[in-house]
Amino acid sequence: MPEQQKSVTGTSLFERYTLSQAYDEMFTAEGDIRPAYSELARLLCSISPAELQQRQRYADLTFLNQGITFTVYGNDAGVERVFPYDLLPRIIAADEWQHIERGLHQRIVALNLFLHDVYHNENILRDGIIPRHLVYSCRHYRREMRGLTVPRGVYTAIVGTDLVRLPDGQFVVLEDNLRVPSGVSYMLTNRAVMKRALPRLFGAYGVRPIDHYGQALLATLRALAPAHRPEPTIVLLTPGVFNSAYFEHTFLARQMGIELVEGRDLLVHNNIVYMRTTKGLQRVDVIYRRIDDDFLDPMIFRPDSVLGVPGLFNAYRAGTVVLANAIGTGVADDKAIYAYVPDIIRYYLGEEPILPNVTTYLCDRPDECAYVLEHLGDLVVKAVGESGGYDMLIGPHSTREEQAQFAERIRAQPRNYIAQPTLQLSQAPCFIDGVIEPRHVDLRPFVLFDGERTTIVPGGLTRVALRRGSLVVNSSQGGGSKDTWVLY
């Protein structure tokens, strides 16, 4: 065993650290330290548990004082919670990141081509690559978007793609988030806190910066503005203070230097959107919306919505205002459509997927549905239109009663469910209760696309399943996050 490895695992910090069948981000299967983690290992050899605990408390206090929170719906104990943060960074080597970047670029280009096609010529449906009924039955498919041309053909300009690393070290795509992807504010604040909590460690590494995300997002939104508006007014539309991602909405608006507005702050006159200001009405050209389709315009979608703007869709259809992301993009992140993304890439780009999908069983197919029902105890079952870890069954961690309930749901609405093998997500070292233990992680990089350029800040949000043995990384289900370092 290498001397450095002996000294690290010989400290009291690692007394509860165990390797498993999962890929370990810091250690090889033989127990050697991976090169990217060598400086972190040196720090952990030289620092006491008490000092590390002090720095963790500093980080937690910083999050608390800055109001870095998220909301848990349906929690009687209270709405707001401080976002759980783990002090130790997740480190990704340069060559691994280059592979991820190429795969994400390929994916966002293909998905935008798919969205344009299904709302226009429907070639991919006519050629039988994707079943027509699967698209039409998607609850996020918007018939109102048929024939409507969006600027530069960009339906989804902001994407958060969830990646996991398998035991063989390969990154695969778990799901795409194309409607209103969240979490980028936590990526940015994690970095700011890390620089202050462990400055010597950060300085010892060549970590690629991510601070430019806000300006990159602003540049993307500007590029999508109507052509006749060279100095566009851009706003961020939020549902309001009670939304789970409200901290992120305020954070990003400040980062970009744009107005944060609610639906009541906007009005539509003669198919032009205006913002109410103390100086009178001001025309709005681009809306970075963080409101789901259903609530955007009560005249077109849900009539009971008080979050949106009456007449907004008519202005959108007239081309006087741009919405990012476009209405109807959710058809491409439906978990049943997700199963076809490799075929979508081959169909539009003539290329093999760089980042593969996870094996997915569609309960809409009778033979695959029968297999899922017979193996509920081994699979992860998900509702196709849900996110945040809701309406999901993790077979190996479920009871027979829970499996029986899901079986009833699947039989009642087979189109609404997919299933995947229970994956061994990679594990990374985390500072838990005064010692370092492995916890399962995933990675959500954030991708920006303006029709010509793809911008991916090097890193992303590493989410952590903080409960021992858990595979659920969602903050609403007890997960947390850590800073993600991509090396030069």
From TrEMBL:
InterPro entries tied to this protein: ATP-dep_Glu-Cys_Ligase-2, CP_ATPgrasp_2, UCP005522
Domain Circularly permuted ATP-grasp type, residue spans: 89-465
Pfam families in the cross-refs: CP_ATPgrasp_2 (PF14403)
PANTHER family named in the record: BLR5612 PROTEIN, SLL1039 PROTEIN
Name used for this protein in its record: Circularly permuted ATP-grasp type 2 domain-containing protein
